[in-house]
UniProtKB/TrEMBL annotation:
InterPro entries: CT_A_B (IPR003778), Cyclophilin-like_dom_sf (IPR029000), PxpC (IPR052708). GO terms for molecular function: ATP binding; hydrolase activity. It comes from the Bacteria. The keyword Hydrolase applies. This is KipI antagonist. Keywords: ATP-binding, Hydrolase, Nucleotide-binding. Gene3D superfamilies: Cyclophilin-like. PANTHER family: 5-OXOPROLINASE SUBUNIT C, CARBOXYLTRANSFERASE DOMAIN-CONTAINING PROTEIN. Residues 26-303 form the Carboxyltransferase domain. SMART domains: AHS2.
Length: 311
């Protein structure tokens, strides 16, 4: 039976997300979806939900929600100091929630995005087969907007299932120093060799104006950036370099076409780490290969699909 949980504190940016809205990029609609697919995948897996079921992505916090009927939840991702009725709640684990319980998250202490899954998934309306919220396009979620205090989240009460904990080896502690692997783009050779060497030798910092569209990096400006090119399709993971010489890594709410020159594409599995990078975090790029990038992404997807079937 569908019930509703009431948001008692929406926080700065809490969004309903799932695995994204695919197949609409030709219409200019971004993919969207959870930025940290590892943490979101584990939140659903801990409850036996379908892969990609809708959950909450809570950026920074604080956040609070009250459940009208009993259910199970799972919390993963950033360390948000979760509490249930005032008692500390272990992260990377699932828990039973009694009727009327208040779940609270504080400010993220490490990482930046926490994930809250509810047994059966959040039952909000779908747009093009996805419940993901893309604020720039006002699609998905509840009216295409971040959650606000007083919003009602539809869910199905389910408190009888088993409880699980993510194995320690799969629980992530987020760091402020990242190394991202890069697959060179078809425009890589258009950058002078000295510019490419400069890019790989630098340690960048995550800029505070980063968002779900792109992670902006600050460092010594790259010299001799090629001029604007004919716009073409772009996707999450692309590293664009505008005239400022400061790279931007596109994320899941990015535009679908762009004319800035592109150095390459960050491994999809590395974007999960970048999604948790706080402003000021240090980022270094290293050369990678398309073969390795694809193999790691396939491995990650097969893991969650296989584990979901077993449950």
């Amino acid at each position: 039976m569908t019930d509703f949980a009431t948001v008692e504190k929406g926080g700065p940016l809490t969004l309903i997300q799932d695995s994204g809205r695919r197949g609409q990029q030709h219409l200019g609609v971004s993919v969207g979806g959870a930025l940290d697919t590892h943490a979101a995948g584990w939140a659903n897996l801990l409850l036996g939900n379908e892969v990609g079921a809708a959950l909450l992505e809570i950026c920074l916090g604080p956040f609070a929600i009250r459940f009208r009927s009993a259910t199970r939840i799972a919390v993963t991702g950033a360390d948000c100091g979760w509490q249930l009725n005032g008692e500390p709640l272990q992260s990377w684990a699932s828990h039973r929630v009694p009727a009327g319980a208040l779940l609270q998250a504080g400010m993220a202490r490490t990482g930046i995005r926490g994930y809250l899954a509810i047994a059966g998934g959040i039952d909000s309306p779908q747009v093009w087969n996805s419940r993901a919220t893309t604020v720039g396009e006002a699609l998905g979620g509840l009216n295409g907007a971040p959650l606000q205090t007083g919003d009602q989240l539809p869910y199905r009460g389910d408190s009888d299932g088993v409880l699980r904990q993510t194995p320690v080896d799969f629980q992530r502690s987020y760091t402020d120093q990242l190394e991202l692997r890069l697959v060179a783009s078809n425009q890589f050779e258009q950058f002078p060799e000295a510019t490419r060497d400069n890019f790989f030798s630098q340690i960048y910092q995550v800029a505070p104006d980063s968002d779900r569209m792109g992670i902006r990096l600050s460092g010594d400006p790259l010299p001799e950036v090629p001029g604007h090119l004919v716009s073409e399709a772009v996707c999450p993971g692309v590293v664009q370099v505008p005239a400022s010489g400061q790279p931007i890594v596109l994320m899941r709410d990015c535009q679908t076409i762009g004319g800035y020159p592109k150095l390459g594409h960050v491994y999809s599995v590395d974007l999960d780490w970048l999604a948790q990078a706080r402003p000021g975090s240090k980022v270094k790029f290293v050369p990678g290969t398309l073969t390795e990038s694809q193999a790691l992404l396939i491995e990650q997807r097969q893991f969650f699909l296989g584990a979901a079937r077993e449950h």
